[in-house]
Amino acid sequence: MSPRPQSIVQSIVAFDYGTKRIGVAVGQTVSGTASPVATVRSRAGNPDWNAIRAIVESFAPEALVVGIPIEVDEGEDTIEHPMTRPVMRFADQLHGLFGLPVHIVDERLSTYEARSRAPGDGQIDAVAAQVILETWLHASALPGAPRAA
Questions:
Q1: Domain CATH number, residue 32
Q2: I need a labelling partner for 140 at 20 to 30 A (CA). Which of 6, 28, 49, 65 fits?
Q3: Structural domain tally of the chain?
Q4: What is the average pLDDT value for the chain, to the nearest integer?
Q5: Is the pLDDT of residue 45 over 80?
Q6: Measured between alpha carbons, how far is residue 60 from residues 52, 86, 104 in Å?
Q7: pLDDT tops 80 at residue 148
Q8: Residue 1 lies in a domain
Q9: With contact defined as beta carbons under 8 Å apart, do 13 and 94 qualify?
Q10: Residues 138/149, Cβ–Cβ less than 8 Å
Q11: Is the dihedral of CA 29, 35, 41, 44 positive or negative?
């Protein structure tokens, strides 16, 4: 059996991880656009893996993107955000469950931008995932840009 041919159009699913809610968005590399899909519940940091699996299986993406919070101190040095480790654990779990590449993206200001775009409070997390995915798609489209942050 030959491997699946690499498609020019790649579907990508992105996540905005939170301990209560996880925003999900989907986009395509050829158009460079993304759309909010859903907000998945998480209880005490435990994602609803059945809901996540259903979303990933329905879109059959070539890769996943996860936003990671990055903080910068007054001296412009990067410092670890309290959510960094839980987000990285979530990204590792995604890779383990689906065997897909997982790209990490700086999600700074994604929720702020999502609040200005979202039609209602119930969609902020999914729109934040959309912003994260658009950031990754834009960076990936630049000549010579690395595909992972």
A1: 3.30.420.140
A2: 49
A3: 1
A4: 83
A5: yes
A6: 12, 25, 19
A7: no
A8: no
A9: no
A10: no
A11: positive
147 within a domain of the structure (yes/no)? no
Query: By residue range, what is the domain housing residue 122?
Result: 11-141
Is 148 a domain residue? no
Q: Which residue spans within the chain are E strands per DSSP? A: 11-16, 21-28, 33-43, 46-47, 63-68, 70-72, 78-80, 102-106
Contact 128, 110 (CB under 8 A): yes
- The answer to whether the CB of 65 falls within 8 A of the CB of 15 is yes
Partners of 66 in the beta sheet? 15, 104
Residue 35, number of CB atoms within 10 A of its CB: 14
CA 135, CA 61: separation in Å to the nearest integer?
17
Is residue 149 domain-resident? no
Determine the Cα–Cα distance for residues 122 and 100; give it in Å rounded to an integer: 28
pLDDT at 87 over 90: yes
Q: How far apart are CA 80 and CA 71, in angstroms?
A: 7
